[in-house]
Write a structure and sequence with these properties.
- This protein is mostly helical.
- Helices cover 37% and strands 0% of the residues.
- It contains six helices and no strands.
- The longest helix has 18 residues.
- The chain is elongated, with a radius of gyration of 32 Å.
- One of its GO terms (molecular function) is RNA binding.
Length: 148
């Protein structure tokens, strides 16, 4: 009796991954395509890398120390459930197009940034002659005493 390839009409072939240009352009087994990086998206990714600086009360893991942006990522929209209507919801005025715009318009973050910038400027301000001057009323009294 001679053997035929498919005697019943079924055939089977092993699934071997085909290496092509399309397979190399995705993130491994997740099949995540590399998106095109626009200037707005680039700013958002840089802000996410520097997120530990933004909020003094939150602490994040060290994460990547590389200065390059990730090649494979996805961007989504957070949809709040109906139960968070009054508690954790952003109003329409507070919603912005990008993450950077939201952070720049946040009042608490703006006050924190302003305070930190003033602290840094104070620490780096040169002393000069100002630290030797006597300020206030006592300097007038001393000047009068010197004239007599």
């Amino acid at each position: 009796m001679s053997q035929s390839k498919a005697s019943i009409g079924l055939s089977w072939a092993p699934k071997v991954p085909i290496f092509s240009k399309e397979a190399k352009e995705s993130a491994g087994k997740f099949d995540m395509p590399a998106p095109t990086i626009t200037p707005e998206l680039k700013k958002d990714l840089e802000i996410l890398k520097l997120r530990s600086v933004l909020d003094p009360k939150r602490h994040f893991k060290k994460g990547d120390k590389s200065k390059t942006l990730p090649k494979y990522f996805q961007v989504g929209t957070v949809i709040e459930p109906a139960s968070e209507f009054f508690s954790g919801r952003l109003t329409k005025k507070e919603r912005k197009a990008t993450l950077v715009d939201e952070l720049l318009s946040d009042h608490n973050l703006k006050a924190y940034r302003k305070r930190k910038v003033q602290e840094i400027e104070e620490s780096r301000k040169p002393g000069g002659v100002e630290k030797w001057k006597i300020k206030g009323r006592n300097s007038w009294k001393r000047a009068k005493d010197r004239r007599r």
